[in-house]
Amino acid sequence: MATQSQPQADSLPEVYESILADPKVAARFWAKVNKVGPIPVKRPDLGPCWLWMGSKGGDGYGRLGMPPRRPVLAHRLAYESVNGPIPPRLESDHLCRTRACVRPSHLEAVSHRENMRRGYQATKPNCKQGHPFDRANTYRLRGHRTCRKCNRLAVIRYLQNKQASPLRERP
Question: What number is the average pLDDT over the span 144-163?
């Protein structure tokens, strides 16, 4: 991926303006990065991930505390430090599928829809019960892939439970 020249400080979002300009913060940021991370299984062509070793949220994404402001996402800061601000209506996508990765070449600005399409659930070959997500066994429900066989089994269980339970009398 070709890198652009360093962005001007006045073109960056306000929250990142002082972060990128402060060498102490930059040193603090890079001190929390392990540049000898694993090579992504699905994309070995990308090279090793740079793993965020600092604080992470419950979702697995790195966060850098910036008092008095709320913490900033580490991967977003890394991307914007090289490529400039992420355009409106776009978000950063991890090409390596590793949430703790902050390597700018592993990140790409994409729409939310594209990010979800590329996401983990979209790449799984089977449902939770092991049935294949193939053309005959898969349908979309509210934007998500759904397993026909699992749905069929759930309907059968529902009908069996409904028949087995006695009708309740209303007072």
Answer: 91
Phi then psi for 130, rounded to 5 degrees? 95, 5
**Tally of CA atoms within 13 A in the half-sphere of 39 that contains its CB:** 5
Specify the residue for token string 């429900």.
Answer: 141
Q: Which residues of 104-122 are buried (b: 16+ CB within 10 A; e: fewer)?
A: bbbbbbbeeeebeeeeeee
Give alpha helix (H) positions in 13-111: 14-21, 23-30, 74-83
Cα 48 to chain center, whole Å? 18
> 53-112 pLDDT, tens per residue?
999 999 999 999 877 778 889 999 999 888 888 899 999 999 998 999 999 999 999 998
Do 91 and 85 touch, CB atoms closer than 8 A?
no
CB-neighbour burial class of residue 47 (10 A; exposed 0-12, middle 13-18, buried 19+): middle
pLDDT (tens digit per residue) in 2-30: 444 433 333 344 555 556 667 888 888 98
Contact status, residue 99 vs residue 59, Cβ threshold 8 Å: yes
CA 90, distance to chain mean position in Å, is 13
Q: How far is CA 168 from CA 7, 58, 159, 165, in A?
A: 69, 43, 16, 9
